[in-house]
Fold these 4 entries.
Entry 1:
Amino acid sequence: MSIIIMIKFFRENKSYIQKTLSLAYPVIIGQLGLIMMGVVDSIMVGELGAVPLAAASLSNSLIFIVLIIAIGNSIAVTPLVAILVGAKKSDECGVYFRQSLLVNLVMGFLVFLIILVGVNYLHLLGQSFSVQQKAKSYMIIIGLSIFPLMIFQTYKQFIEGLSIMRPAMIITLAANLINVFANWVLIFGKLGFPRLELDGAGWATFLSRLFMAISLMIFVMYNKRFRIYDVSFHFRSLNFPVIRRILSVGLPSGFQYFFEVGAFSFAVIMIGWIGANELAAHQIAISLASVSFMGVLGISQAGGILVGNAVGEQSVQLVRKSGFTAIALGMIWMSVSGIIFILFRNHLPFIYIRDEAVIRIASQLLIIAALFQLSDGIQAVGIGILRGLTDVKGPTVITFIAYWIISLPIGYLLAFQFGYGVIGVWIGLLIGLTCSAIMLTLRFNYKSRKLISV
């Protein structure tokens, strides 16, 4: 029966599915390329042992807590430009690009300052001394890489608002090769370079992000199709109405990601209280789950672009069709991912580490990861298509409630009061994701019934 329903769905929504996938697949591949950098780092750092891997997990989680606000803010230009394209106001697109570039660089600088101050207070998080020591210098190096990352993000999100997705994908894939080579050279001290171990992984990330920024910037600046937008570092003036518009969509979007990613990052801290093996296992399982999430994030962005175009065209039917098609595709993607996690839960952890105790814990976490795939997919797409409507404040409240009012307290109780340990923390995350998915879907169903004027 379910097969018949799926066949009917694909027949009735063929054109919408094709449009969504044509925009989504370069983003999916590009996002997978980005997350593969983290996977490769984890694999290669894992060769150094559980403590460096735990330090990398802690560092990346803490940095991402604040970085995700800047990343979310940078994404705002995509739906705003998509709406302008749908409304045939392409002359205004360049203004949004230039102002978003300025905003994003300022945001990146603020994040770097927070990291510089924050590394002095790692001892307050209750982590082991060896993990703290290895994390400090690594965090500062990753902080430096934020500047080229924000430049790359600005150019990437702008051209994606114009429905041009492939350049960022190609550059990201090329950056993976640079990251692997730089990791090999700098982590293990090859070709006459000093053995930098975990810090080497940080410098490899910096170099790969610098390559991404320069490559995409050169491509866009010297491509004739973009010249009408003035896509350089030249700022004509500060356009405060546009800056306010970007921030009004971007900051709530950033806090949406903050509440979700922050919840997962705080989960890392709680798991660190349990033990280094549990923390290393969490890093492995969440790294694998992030691969599938990057895929559905591509569908989310594609759905948001098409919803934004439909808003610009003032078409309620097209808004709803585009949005719900994206949700359905996200569900299919994540269902397949969940099945893979269950079938290969005892084998996937071997990619990262050979420690039997860590592998046993990671295989258990992958079962829970498989269960929350569907919810994670729905909520990720829900945020994207609501952003296409420029509806960001309501989803921000939803994500806060789902993760910080529901998920983390339940995870803490299950882990430390009922003795379920790391499994309890992950069950809490599962419950939070499910609540978020339900509320965001209901909100899109309500908001999409009326066309929002822009």
Entry 2:
Amino acid sequence: MLVLVAPGQGAQTPGFLTPWLDLPGAADRLGAWSDVTGLDLVRLGTKADAEEIRDTAVAQPLLVAGALLSAAALFDRAVSGGAVASAPREAVGAVAGHSVGELAAASLAGTLTEHDAMALVRRRAEAMAEAAAVTKTGMSAVLGGDPAEVAARLDALGLTAANNNGGGQIVAAGTMEQLAALAADKPDKARVLPLKVAGAFHTSHMAPAVAAMAEAAGQVGVADPVIPFVSNADGEVVTEGQEIVRRLVSQVSHPVRWDLCMETFQQLGATALIELCPAGTLAGLAKRNLPGVARVAVKTPDNLAEARELIAAQAAEAAEQEH
């Protein structure tokens, strides 16, 4: 069974959409999404520098656009209603996204149209950027160390474990002063690496953005997913569209439990994982946490052939099991 995943904020790099614009229809699709978001996604995805695309209001729409654009290319079709409709249902067994990637996953599952996913991510990004501007905050990855000691250190400093990515990788979030204190006095055997994000996402610092996200979510059409959606909140499989949207709203100020998502992938019997553009981070986590699961990171169109081979192999395996 194949899991299709979409990356979160911090995965973007300057020019990451450039090679995708050579594909038929890609520029038109990005142009349409630019109209929805009020952003020039073509320029931002090809010519903007690292600082410009680090801006939350820019980074989040770019990331969802990248995931949706690469998914459309992967399955060699226009997305029908947002769902990966032309993919063999037996091959794509579940979808998930890390943080803002959940909006792309919700579209790929069929709960949101592409248009609505892009409209929602634009409002989410604006609201989170506004919330981040209230107090100077950020996030740092804490790699290694004893989990109990790491948790105790974060608690003592008033930091939040905003992401649990499994394999001993925790993302701490809070004020810059709190993060500086963490870097100055690390938990034993742990490394602390500042992340290229503009705020303490998935914490109480983002509470003001929840109401704005809820209002925007009330203006979009919602359908039940045609592919199971694995939620960041608790790793649960969600099969009702309205519940997916409710979780998309609350997720803004609540931690991302990617560790639990990966546990669910295992429980579902995942044998393969494809990470959509701009890929690398989630495929890397899968390498460490999902041994034996085949992986393809779709970074550029050059990776599409390998990903399609993996999809075909999963479909063939599923067909054999049916007989």
Entry 3:
Amino acid sequence: MEQQKLPNVTIAMVLSILSFICCCFSAGIGGILLSGIALFLVNKDTKLYSQNPEDYSNFSTLKTVKIIAIIGLVIGVLTLLWSAYSIFAIGGWEAYMEQNQEMLEQLGIE
């Protein structure tokens, strides 16, 4: 019997990698959502693999994607916590946006 690939590995990998990018642009919320979806897909494929392990060939890739998704989730949560702390500790949304603008100017982005 020919071994086949697990169905959700590729999309879970794309979502995991995109979660890193979304952490930067959405205060962590996008990263949490994308890596959460990726983890859901990985768990679905893990259950599928556990039913018939001899039918599938890319379980090592699935484990790698799971690690990437967990790292993306942790970075997303940390970014969200840092954003929430910055908003409340600095003194509101305007002060938070002003601080971000100063950081961008220091980096030479704007």
Entry 4:
Amino acid sequence: MFGFIISRILQAIPVLLIVGFIAFALFAYVGDPVNILLGQDHTEAQRLELIRQLGLDQPFFVQYWHFLLNALHGNFGISYRLAQPVSRLIAERSPATLELALTASVLALAIGVPMGVYTGIHRTTPLSRLFMVVSLVGVSLPTFLLGILLILLFSVWLGWLPSFGRGPVVHVGAWWTTGLTSWAGIRSLILPSITLGLFQMTLIMRLVRAEMLEVLRTDYIKFARARGLTSRTINFGHALKNTLVPVITVIGLQFGGIVAFSLVTETVFQWPGMGLLLVQSVAVADIPVMSAYLILIALVFVVINLVVDLLYYAVDPRLRLRR
């Protein structure tokens, strides 16, 4: 197991180096940080001094090496727009994004798996057909449109839930903040988490249903029925367990996608997370923030892939025997 983890980490190093090179290329070829930082009114001496401080007078690969060293220490420079360290901005915004992503993933998993199992076992019931219709709507409806419709219904017409913001938050530890300690914070989380998790929920439901239908046709399920096992034991003890490997893959990758691409939902609901920070940074070409976000998302996907591979071993004993 330890060797397997080491091999996966070694495979991830080239990926992170390539992503780091792309992020550095944003520094080198997109925009002019000197003009952005100094503005219109500056002397040539001030310009040359800032170029020396930023290390822009050094060769390309020397700058790239310093960029990697600083990234390893969590130093991604100063935001052009906010004039603050990028690492501090990400540390302030990441709790909101992770809280939203975790809530959306839990909702998608808690609702999608039971719906998929039910539609796989009871294929012709009216409720199963209703679930399939809901899944088509969830897959087809764009995220921004779904968010606007939810705001219109629950915020404008009914007035039950807030339409933007995170609500009051409390600090837990050195940098983590959460809004789950108050009812106002929970109410602010409902609409964006549903918007972000609906597509994942329908995808998980359809995947579980397809896997259940395939597993229920296999010979060992027929043999289990011939032995006189109960339907509950067959459906949940044998069939569902053997559908978990592809489901774990989708859940892991979709969680990374939720973290990486939550910017649409965060923009619609003005959720103060990393996605909204990225959208605001792209509008003004804030290259340090964009580069840090790119590297962070690559690291998230690498870690998620490692966790998914480890969960394979916990769920499927065939993989352990093969190793």
